[in-house]
Design a protein that fits this description.
- The protein is mainly beta.
- The chain has helices at 9-19, 43-53, and strands spanning 26-28, 31-33, 66-69, 74-84, 95-104, 110-115, 120-121, 127-133, 138-141, 144-156, 160-173, 176-193, 199-215, 218-233, 244-256.
- The strands form three sheets. Strands 8, 9, 10, 11, 12, 13, 14 and 15 form an eight-stranded antiparallel beta sheet that branches.
- A hairpin with a 5-residue loop joins strand 12 and strand 13.
């Protein structure tokens, strides 16, 4: 939901553009406002993990990798590391992948791990950014704690832009990784402009809250969808064009329930106002 009133059409145009390619305000679980991400990386333990995985520590993007204490004995890592480096005979840029894992604090032995299904190129126009770990873990049942990871993707320039952010929640059960929630869209933005003062944009943003009700022993999740649409036309006296601004909002809710394996959801994230 857009919280700042438009004061300058040109200023807000650039604000919205950068909004689509950088971090932004989120509403997650019971709190409104900015998300709190883990800003730590256990370097000492990561050296041991890399040695056990036969990954060169120098290939890890330490500025784009994060960790969080899962419990007193285990640490969760979201790693991004190079799998193929550029050469003078190839296109510039490195190929990299993402790995999520739990490791023992004592020796860095990997308890379980999963890789992202995609391989990324850091020069691709469609950029997939680092995986951020929410600072606070989430209690879904009496004995299940989840770690939430958000990933942002974006593409675009002056005339057109789009971005989306997805949430995945991971836990550990009998030393095996389970995905309680997988690639759940939590924010989506699309817009276009004339690279001056005219633009049209719609933002879908979701807030997520654990309820007191349970299904199959796990708390139900209440999702609130907030659609915000803006269409601004800048005044042009030379062309006899009157300036105008349209703002529309719509709110919907849905509830996610645990089906015994994970939280399933209906994939309906179409915009409510954009017609293209």
């Amino acid at each position: 939901m857009i919280e700042k009133k438009i004061t300058s059409k040109k200023v807000i145009l650039y604000f919205i553009f950068f909004l689509s390619i950088s971090s932004y305000s989120q509403k997650i679980f019971k709190e409104y406002g900015n998300r709190e991400y883990s800003d730590t990386l256990n370097i000492e333990l990561l050296h041991k993990v890399c040695e056990n995985l036969k990954i060169k520590f120098s290939d890890v993007y330490t500025d784009k990798s994060h960790s969080i204490d899962f419990d007193s004995d285990k640490t969760f890592f979201a790693l991004q590391y190079i799998i193929s480096k550029e050469t003078e005979h190839e296109e510039k840029g490195n190929f990299y992948e993402k790995k999520y894992l739990f490791a023992n604090n004592s020796d860095g032995q990997v308890i379980d791990q999963i890789n992202d299904t995609e391989i990324y190129w850091d020069q691709d126009a469609y950029q997939v950014y680092e995986s951020n770990i929410l600072k606070n873990k989430i209690k879904f049942s009496d004995d299940t704690i989840g770690v939430a990871i958000s990933v942002q993707e974006s593409v675009g320039g002056c005339a057109g832009f789009s971005s989306k952010q997805k949430l995945t929640i991971i836990s550990l059960s009998n030393n095996k990784i389970i995905k309680l929630l997988s690639d759940f869209p939590i924010r989506k933005t699309s817009g276009q402009s004339n690279c001056a003062g005219n633009y049209e944009i719609e933002i879908l943003e979701k807030s997520i809250e654990l309820t007191k009700n349970k299904t199959n022993g796990f708390f139900d999740i209440l999702v609130t969808k907030m659609f915000t649409y803006e269409n601004v036309i800048e005044e042009n006296l030379d062309k006899n064009i009157k300036g105008q601004e349209k703002v529309k909002n719509k709110t919907e809710t849905e509830k996610l329930k645990f089906n015994g394996k994970n939280y399933d959801f209906k994939k309906d994230d179409t915009y409510r106002f954009l017609k293209w």
